[in-house]
Write a structure and sequence with these properties.
The chain is an alpha+beta fold. Helix 2 runs antiparallel to helix 3.
Amino acid sequence: MEFNANNHVVKLSLQGMELEEKGKPEEAGRLFLQAWNDATNDFEKFIAAHYVARHQRSIPDKLKWLETDLKLALKINNESVKAALSSLYTSIATCYEDLNDRDNAKKNYELANSFTDNPSDNGPFYHGTKADLKIGDFLTAGYNSNYKSALTMNHIYFTALVNGAGLAAALAKGDGSERVYIVEPTGSFENDPNVTNKKFPGNPTRSYRTEAPLKIIGEATDWMRQTPDELKKWREKLANNKGEIIN
């Protein structure tokens, strides 16, 4: 299942996170539990269980929800969810540690370490920009960030979701037309740490970064365009974001 910001469970989760930020954990917990009860498939349940787990007051209850979330993640078996496994195993290990169960803590820490390798996503991959490029050109790191102009980026970013690349193109600096190029990594890549296991578990936007060039092998023309109002909201959101970019 592809991540969709308009999904009912995702919306409830976002509302719950807003309540957390406002210091209303009980109201947030009720919304997260509603998301769990309203979930209609394993992917939605996986998202909801993540938030229900962190609102449990006892370690055994938290562990139960984390292990439920883990079972769902292993059952789903897709790239966006795989990125959550290391974090999930670490959280489970911490619970066992708090329960003085050293054997299970050690086992889960070892499992967490086994899921820290590079992603196995086979794409296709996309990069959104306003630059006018052609097939055979290479995209490289070393340019200023679209979101923090004073920051020179050490990586080049891309995604396996064409609509995500389309949004990046719309938000990119420049006066050119929005372009979404189909790209091929020329070296190893990693989950984008700026989004992976941040607000949502795993890497739901299938966003990656690499220090190696990306080769342009084609151009995509069919992706969901944002309305002017939607773009305005995105730009306001980015302007108000005080978080540091992991570079």
